[in-house]
Design goal:
The protein is an all-alpha fold. It has a domain at 5-105. The chain has helices spanning 5-24, 30-56, 67-73, 77-104, 109-122, 124-144. It is elongated and about 60 Å long. The relative contact order is 0.12.
């Protein structure tokens, strides 16, 4: 396994993209999308994160007690890569949750695609967009007398 953080970085993005592609196409193969995007790929990214943190955490300057120290943490390339793997794993996991929840609540897949794009690009903004979408659909159903 390569240990150069720049080389490892080159693997993390395409791996995560496979998960996002599975979510985008999930109506075609929901179980495969769930397996890839909610389990296998986040787990692989989490293994990479954990290994990087275990090996390189002590090399990193900084800490969590101030913004300056948090910024200093990410000056160590392997710790910055661990942070990137953290973002990729958690955002994909949230995207998979959005997809499963929408499927369970019969929210049309086309409506969640913008939420998935936002989650991919801006994490919590996509989660918020899905939260607003769900709430608005529930409110609309209540106002029209339909069951949500």
């Amino acid at each position: 396994m390569p240990t150069d953080p720049h080389l490892l970085f080159g693997y993390t993005g395409p791996l995560a993209m496979l998960g996002w592609l599975a979510l985008a196409l999930s109506p075609l193969a929901p179980r495969a999308a769930d397996l890839a995007a909610a389990l296998v790929i986040p787990a692989l990214l989490s293994v990479a994160y954990t290994a990087l943190i275990l090996v390189h955490w002590s090399d990193a300057p900084g800490g969590f007690d101030s913004l300056s120290n948090v910024m200093a943490l990410f000056t160590e390339p392997s710790v910055a890569l661990a942070g990137w793997a953290h973002y990729l794993a958690f955002d994909l996991f949230v995207g998979a949750w959005i997809t499963r929840t929408a499927r369970a609540e019969a929210i049309p897949h086309l409506l969640i695609l913008p939420c998935l794009v936002l989650t991919f690009l801006f994490g919590p903004a996509g989660f918020l967009a899905f939260f607003i979408l769900r709430a608005s659909l529930t409110l609309r159903a209540r106002m029209t007398g339909a069951t949500a």
